[in-house]
Design a protein that fits this description.
α1 packs antiparallel against α2. Helix content is 73%, strand content 0%. It has one domain. The radius of gyration is 17 Å and the shape is rod-shaped. By secondary structure, the chain is an all-alpha fold.
Length: 71
């Protein structure tokens, strides 16, 4: 029984690591999108709506204790 519990917690820690890495990737993606939007020449090029939608998702994936990703 102890072995099963240890295996389960290892799996949870691996899933949490993957989730935090995905959250970090989303935050980096939103920063890159904001940089690209800052150098746009037209109003459509400067639209950063996508970055402001992706950033909170990434932050939530990084700081939550719940598992939000499912494989």
């Amino acid at each position: 029984m102890y072995e099963r519990r240890r295996r389960r917690s290892k799996t949870r820690s691996q899933v949490m690591l993957q989730q935090r890495l995905m959250g970090l990737l989303l935050v980096v993606l939103s920063v890159v999108m904001l940089i690209v939007c800052a150098h746009g020449t037209t109003i459509e090029d400067r639209d950063g709506t996508g970055a402001f939608m992706v950033l909170p998702m990434g932050l939530y994936l990084i700081f939550t204790k719940n598992i939000c990703i499912y494989w």
